[in-house]
Amino acid sequence: MRSFGCPQCRINISFETLNCWSCGAKVGFHPPTHRFYVIDDDAADVDGVSWEECANRREWACNWLVDPATGRTMCDSARYIRGRPSADETAALEKLADTAHWLRRLIYQLDHLGLPLESYHDKEGALAFDMFSSIALGHPVTIGHANGVITIDLAESLDDRRERLRIQLGEPYRTMLGHLRHEVGHYYESILVEKPGGELLDECRELFGDERASYSDAIKHHYKYGAPQDWRDSYISEYATMHPWEDFAECFAHYLHLTDTMETAGASGMMLSTARINDYDGPPISPRFDYGPEHFEVMLEDWFWVKTFFNRINRSMGDRDLYPFEINDVVARKLAFVHKVVTSAKRPVQQPA
Ligand SMILES: [Zn+2]
Ligand SMILES: [Zn+2]
Q1: What SS3 class is residue 115?
Q2: pLDDT, average across residues 280-304
Q3: What is the average pLDDT across 44-57?
Q4: Which end of the chain is less enclosed by CB atoms within 10 A, N or C?
Q5: 86 and 68 fall within a common domain
Q6: What's the DSSP call for residue 305?
Q7: Domain named Zinc-ribbon: which ranges (predicted)?
């Protein structure tokens, strides 16, 4: 993610900031330009136009601003949430606030990557999130995607529950943001690759397999037998082995992990001196965000050094690796395909002034 500055005192603030930690200014995030503005009396002056704070600011700590031309009270990120817990499910609603925060990060990144982004409000079959809690409902909520609608179990935002599942499933990584990135991968495969006459479909099938294979059979097989012994040779995760759709969605999620982490590092001015690392005297690495269509190799090389660095940092703190995955040549080809899908779908992005 980019680095943001306080509009009043210019000090670095995070994407989630409501009030500047240094000067105390009340600030709001302006989604079209990805910039922060000072809020006075519940509204921010954006080039002479008054943008209101989001109605979810207090309850959800949403710091996004609302376009006055829309006549709405909630920001754009809220327009993707279709189903939600009822008003009396207070514990579940708290989890919705947590999850809505990760959703804003997701929406921001998709927009920043220039991917087509439409809410179900504006177009039938476009992106929608149904967010329910399996605890509040008393029955399982299956995380998944169908026809633009992504279902999320809010109970997974409970750390103890999510961590238990992670261990039970033998996963090295499990987060709410990871779920969102994975599920939205299904959505983008459906609209960008599987669209009628899609030029990328044949290549996709060659790399990931034929997505027309029975999904219900694949689930049954996966939960009965697990992943094949040699899954590491061709997949980023065990879950990716289940069905071609899951393989693509896993790779899509990893693509979002890589691009966001590298942008954060690059936007903070990070440079890695590979010459400092024994037996390697390559050029310095300066991770960035905008790797063009032909720069996937560079991106992967940069990522190798960035993730190696952050894994070492985490171990220095006695924690698990930041990125506990291996990208071998087969997986790299799949990620290169995702890069192609994303960069060829890119619309012109408004650059922040
Ligand atoms: Zn400030
Ligand atoms: Zn909002």
Answers
A1: coil
A2: 89
A3: 95
A4: C
A5: no
A6: H
A7: 4-86
Range of the domain at 9: 4-74
Pair (139, 226) in one structural domain: yes
Q: How far is the CA of 335 from the centre of ligand 2 (A)?
A: 32
pLDDT of 276 higher than 80:
no
Residues 68 and 123 grouped into a single domain: no
Given this model, what pLDDT does residue 237 score? 95
pLDDT digits (tens, 9 = 90+) for 330-346: 999 999 999 999 999 98
Tell me which residues have their CB within 5 A of the ion that is ligand 1: 6, 8-9, 20, 22-23, 25
Asked whether 45 and 37 are in contact (CB, 8 A), the reply is yes
Q: Report CA(20)–ligand 1 centroid distance (Å).
A: 5
pLDDT at residue 278, rounded to an integer:
66
Within a domain: residue 343?
no
Residues 19 and 103 occupy one common structural domain: no
Q: Which residues surround ligand 2, an ion (CB under 5 A)?
A: 54, 56, 62, 64, 75, 78
Q: Over the stretch 64-104, which tens digit does the pLDDT of each residue have? A: 999 999 999 999 999 999 999 998 998 888 889 999 999 99
- Which of these three, 24, 59, 74, is where a domain ends? 74
- Distance, in Å, from the CA atom of 54 to the CA atom of 58, rounded to the nearest integer, reads 9
Ligand 1: distance of its center to the CA of 270 in Å? 23
Instruction: Tell me what pLDDT residue 199 has.
Output: 87
Residue 3 three-state SS: coil
Number of domains in the chain: 2
Q: Tokens standing for 340?
A: 């192609």
CB 20, CB 6: distance < 8 Å: yes
User: What separation in Å is there between the alpha carbon of 10 and the centre of ligand 1?
Assistant: 6
Question: Looking at residue 318, what is its pLDDT?
Answer: 98
Distance 58 CA to ligand 2 centre (A): 10
Ligand nearest to the CA of 62: 2
